[in-house]
Specification:
Layout: H1 3-27, E1 43-47, E2 62-66, H2 67-73, H3 78-86, H4 94-120
Antiparallel strand pairs: 1-2
Bound molecules: zinc ion.
Zinc ion binds next to strand 2 and helix 2.
Length: 124
């Protein structure tokens, strides 16, 4: 790796880390796609518009996602990926099925949590 490439790599890494902190605070540590709660070190940075489709390394195009969603989304658009997650039919492929299951489990967990909080009189 040349000095120029090393510098470029450091800049990219610093940018991604800074963007991650900013984006993460806006999203309250949730995966953009499945809404699962993300702990420090468990998140990835995803390009909403994939780089392969012209998406840029700008914070407007970056979001925090869990590893499963990021890998499963691959070079799909947000809309394409969302359509798969919301489908009642399981998708083909191990990564997509994992993301599809996580999405459904998270929705159920959040509904249960709301019901429990309501029952005990706690505001979320
Ligand atoms: Zn996710």
């Amino acid at each position: 790796m040349s000095a120029r490439h090393r510098m470029r790599y450091r800049i990219d890494r610093a940018f991604r880390q800074a963007a991650a902190i900013e984006i993460r605070s806006k999203q309250e540590m949730q995966c953009r796609y499945c809404k699962s709660v993300l702990l420090a070190g468990e998140y990835t940075i995803d390009h909403v518009v994939p780089k392969s489709r012209g998406g840029l390394d700008r914070k407007e195009n970056l979001c925090v996602a869990c590893v499963t969603c990021n890998l499963a989304k691959s070079d799909m658009s947000k809309k394409e990926f969302r359509r798969i997650l919301e489908s009642n039919t399981p998708p083909a492929g191990v990564l997509l099925i994992r993301a599809w299951i996580n999405y459904r489990m998270e929705r159920r967990l959040q509904r249960s949590l709301k019901r429990i909080c309501k029952a005990v009189g706690v505001d979320l």
